[in-house]
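Internal ticket - ligand job 239, fe (ii) ion:
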Amino acid sequence: MRVEIIKCLQDNYSYILIDEASLNACIIDPGDSKPIINFIENNNIKLKYILNTHHHYDHVGGNSELKKRYRSEVIGFKDDRHRIPEIDIFVSDNEIWKKDNFEAKIYHTPGHTTGHIAFHFYKDNKIFTGDTLFSLGCGKVLEGTHEQMFASLNKFKELPLDTEIYCGHEYTLQNSNFCLAYDSTNSKLKEKIKIIKKKLSNNLTTVPTQLNDELECNIFLKAKSLESFSILRDLKDNF
Ligand SMILES: [Fe+2]
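stdout (structure tokens):
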């Protein structure tokens, strides 16, 4: 399975997953249909599935147009069936979603929204975390509680250390400033920031990131208690 990273809207990432043998493809979080259509037409792939991590417009904005054009199926969390446009398939926590050569475990990760999910393509060692886990950060707690968000992030810590993390936005540099401000002696973080800056100056993405790196550098994953996580999340909201 090959992953193509598509920049959408202001700073969103959509991901096209391509099975190279069949050229069947999934899109994760199409915030906008135009760049996706562009890629599909130029690469002659078949967009069969649209996977949404949550219902926010910048993650589902392309659903209707893409579904209409390619007759794709829309997959989302069962409890969000009334707010994910054009949803066809409802998935639940810990379910395995399997179609063609695609196989992902669903993790319900409430906090940013109550119905947020992540897609873990475990055979390919990749997880798509939407607006729950970012590189060096985590999503704002908008609908859920800090407790839920902390528990959601803890689910990711159990995955294999070399898991590649694909998140919903390019927020890495601004997140790194916050991590550095409250974890200023972390030499691994400083190393990672150098790499991030180099990538961005070469117009490259900072995703995917590795779980291993995030466990050492992401201050929200390093938080050992709900209390310290909550304090950090509040500080970040006003940073
Ligand atoms: Fe969001």
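Auto-summary: The pocket of fe (ii) ion is lined by residues 54, 56, 112, 131 (CB under 6 Å). The chain has nine helices and 14 strands.
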